Amino acid sequence: MRKSDVVLKLVVLSLLIALGVVISPVLRVEGMCPMAHLINIICSVLLGPWYSLLCATLIGIIRMLTMGIPPLALTGAVFGAFLSGVFYRMSKGKIILAVLGEIIGTGIIGALASYPVMTLLWGKEGLSWLFYIPSFTCGTLIGGSIAYVFLRKLAANGMLARMQRSVGSAGYQDQPSTLSDALTIVALGGILWVVIKVACTAFGLESPAWNTAAYIAPAAAAAAGLIYYRIKKGKEADAKTE
Q: How many CA atoms lie within 13 A of 14 on its CB side?
């Protein structure tokens, strides 16, 4: 690897760390930080698993020192960051597997690791091994949805591969497919959830109807994605038989 590639990677890494710290409070509650997972996946795809692990670690440490965040800032980020990059590289550039790596690494491994850390080191009581799995998984689904739509758009026009090559990373061509299009529709539901929640907070929308709408949006997007996939696959099958 050229020295200029290393320098550029470090510059991109620094920018992602700064961005991750700044946007981490968005939608954050204890045990759920969707924006951290967004940064993890983007860093994994652009720079690889080791840089992503370093990025998540430094963001977590900075948040703990400056924002008073508990060790969940680390246990809820580092495993998913690394596994996201590993899954992406092993799949030869499948963005959905980068998201899946984040979900498994954070939603399961990180959640399980958080129990002894928060109990033994932080002194928190009333927890169980499965306590953080729902919130961690929810956070990864939201952040992962945003990352997937963003990276899918970059991949569709070839910009993602160019960005990867420009920093000395392996460039992959994850071409659009019926499945990827359907998953993009599903991921839009996660983005709608974020939009509604942010709007409720910003404008003081406390009606139960808004809270219901926030959860209907992902369900509707999932149904729309499934219907789209079935219709497109049906048309493709009909075209082959003609």
A: 6
